[in-house]
Amino acid sequence: MPITFNQALTAECEFSEWTISNKSRAKLIEVIAYLYLRQEENAQRVIDALEPRRRVSKGRVAENVVRKLTAPRAEDVELLQSGTEAQKEAARKRINTSIIHRDGLLFQHISWIAARLELSDGYMTSPHVRQADKGFDGFIIELDERVCEIKRIVLCEDKASKTPRNLITSSVWPEIRTIRSGDRDDEILADLVTLLRSVPSIDAEEAVDKIFWEGAREFRVAVATGEDQRRAGNFLHIIAGFKTAAGGKLEARTAGVLAFEDVRTGLDLLAGEVAAKVEEIANV
Predict the structure, then answer these.
(1) DSSP 126
(2) For 47, what's the count of Cα atoms within 13 Å in the CB-facing half-sphere?
(3) pLDDT in tens for each of the 284 residues of the chain?
(4) How far apart are the C-alpha atoms of 217 and 155, rounded to whole Å?
(5) Under 8 Å between Cβ of 158 and 104
(6) Which pTM does this prediction carry?
């Protein structure tokens, strides 16, 4: 598998540390490239060790994808070197923001692959198209198709950060508490019905009507960060407070951490490799 999972015991959640296998890195890059090109079926075929089907990339999709994988912009780098002090400061801010957005979207794609490997029978929303998109980063359902019932609804939050603990406590835990309070129920329901309509054997409205809302809803938090965030040999401190924020049974809370030597350098290198693969696939 392109990603391996090493489990660790904690009362907070079902936790695993993710590792990108050097042996399967090329496979991971190919899967991510197909996902960016909105060719999810081909991405799944690569995961399943099948030959992808040749498809013509539409319009400027490949060009747009390469742009999203490229940060910072060349014009901002030039301004940072030769602009006025005001231009340099503005360029510096744009460069930082573009890298954060590029890395966040890239990690969402990696997290989608990790979820597909761990929950192979689940139905999943596709990774976002836009950078810094609002809403849930992912949405997974598991079905009991024999009785047209939903067994699990997994809401996913994916974060790529040099200081993830601050982001988790200031953003992710409050978001989960908001969901538990019911303030996002209409958004969850809209995404759920949309996803269910892609399942031919399920009547979406009937399945929704049968849900025990509190019992079916679960949470998954994934983080990409640097090795400098490891404490006492692990990353468990990052997800401290998950149990309090999400409640429920242990198996209703899942978390994973993907560590790079340096998260920005690691994701930048990966983005360049994915962009090259996108160009190869699309022949642009």
Answers:
(1) P
(2) 22
(3) 789 999 999 999 999 999 998 999 999 999 999 999 999 999 999 999 889 998 877 789 999 999 999 999 999 999 989 989 999 899 999 999 999 999 999 999 999 999 999 988 888 988 877 665 555 778 898 887 665 678 889 999 999 999 999 999 999 999 999 999 989 888 888 888 888 888 877 788 888 887 766 678 899 999 999 999 999 999 999 999 999 999 999 999 999 999 999 999 999 999 999 999 999 999 85
(4) 8
(5) yes
(6) 0.93
d(CA 178, CA 172): 10
The pair of structure tokens assigned to 1 is: 């598998």
Contact 12, 240 (CB under 8 A): yes
- Strand-pairing partners, residue 90, are none
User: Which residues fall within 8 angstroms of residue 165, CB to CB, at 6 or more apart?
Assistant: 229, 237, 238
CA–centroid distance for 4 within its chain = 16
